[in-house]
Amino acid sequence: xxxxxxxxxxxxxxxxxxxxxxxxxxxxxxxxxxxxxxxxxxxxxxxxxxxxxxxxxxxxxxxxxxxxxxxxxxxxxxxxxxxxxxxxxxxxxxxxxxxxxxxxxxxxxxxxxxxxxxxxxxxxxxxxxxxxxxxxxxxxxxxxxxxxxxxxxxxxxxxxxxxxxxxxxxxxxxxxxxxxxxxxxxxxxxxxxxxxxxxxxxxxxxxxxxxxxxxxxxxxxxxxxxxxxxxxxxxxxxxxxxxxxxxxxxxxxxxxxxxxxxxxxxxxxxxxxxxxxxxxxxxxxxxxxxxxxxxxxxxxxxxxx
Length: 305
Ligand code: FUB
Known about the structure:
- By secondary structure, this protein is mainly β.
- The chain has 1 helix and 20 strands.
- It has one helix at residues 178-181; strands at residues 13-22, 25-33, 46-52, 58-66, 73-75, 81-85, 88-97, 102-109, 117-118, 135-138, 144-148, 154-158, 172-173, 192-201, 204-211, 220-226, 234-240, 253-257, 260-267, 279-285.
- Strands 5, 6, 7, 8 and 9 form a 5-stranded antiparallel beta sheet that branches.
- Bound molecules: beta-L-arabinofuranose.
């Protein structure tokens, strides 16, 4: 039995994993932490894609979308997610606008590996800094949801075209309650921090996210569940704990692939690793019969499938 190694690549620093299963292939979209920092802060200019058919052998597709492709953006190529609809691929990406503030861009391509072409304007652009870390899901009835946000979890109902949303309903704010996201130390008083990952398994909707426990500086991963796509959310528990030597952020991406469940996350474990030099890893996990998930341990890799 072959065994993969974590991190998934050691040729560059990668973060913010977003898996997408399409056909017999798992595509993994990531951000890219540049080696050289500007202003001692996240220095991130492009998005990357890797793919595998067996979880051990990965193909590096390189840069598939970048700030150079988005005329109105100038920095912060942050956590993306990709989805397919009607044969087109949509890559939702937070970026910093040239005229200030964060917003969500959309790259469009005929192929999962790009190149992606910018929509030409922000999809979600509110007058605050909450518009980061989009997560997208198309429900069984065809309604697509785009959740996002730090420090608040918000969502829009995407139209069938995937590049606009129901403006009559507008941007909806999820009630940030302790029942939904547990007590924590982020700005809302709950543990919800950022990096939401929205999906459905059976009849249960999951929201997995980076979270701040009371008194903790570094993010752990946690999850909440709901019987409907827009809540109410119920806190489920810690999914991945913080540990010795951890960095400030973590970021979840979950998928089922060929009968196995995977949690992608990031650490600072490559040589030279730091909060601004992260690396994407993967762990396999199982659901309990009631849909709950036990804490997933950071690990050294997964088995070939
Ligand atoms: O990678 C930049 C930002 O850090 C992401 O948008 C957050 O989720 C956190 O990982």
